[in-house]
Fold this protein.
Amino acid sequence: MQHAWVLRVFSRIAPGFAPGRALHRLALDCAARGDAAGAESAFASAVASYRRVWDVEGLARLRVHESMVRARSAGDRGQEAEMLLGIVRGLNKLDRLESLESPFEMRDARAVLSDWLALSEGAIADVPQGERESTAA
């Protein structure tokens, strides 16, 4: 994302005035590069922008992505598995969701979840069976 540095500067100087979709993609780009702090900052700026223009669907998609990034960056496989239920609940309200890989195109929300779960499969598989069942309840 060549214009990422411009969006970062702009989002810090005038949060809420940069386009929410661009800031959302910046957050996804940061997350894809492993920059959880940068992603959180860009997500926060995107929230302000989405709220400013009343983009409820964009905000809902962002919240799912934000939860995915937080779960992945928690570093605790059990905590990631616990957060999965909330992610699935948020995702069930959506038909489409930006993919987690550049160029972050819109895809079927369940396919994006499936891709994310495939990357998390080891994390969830490491959680003892009893804990997985209590998390799903």
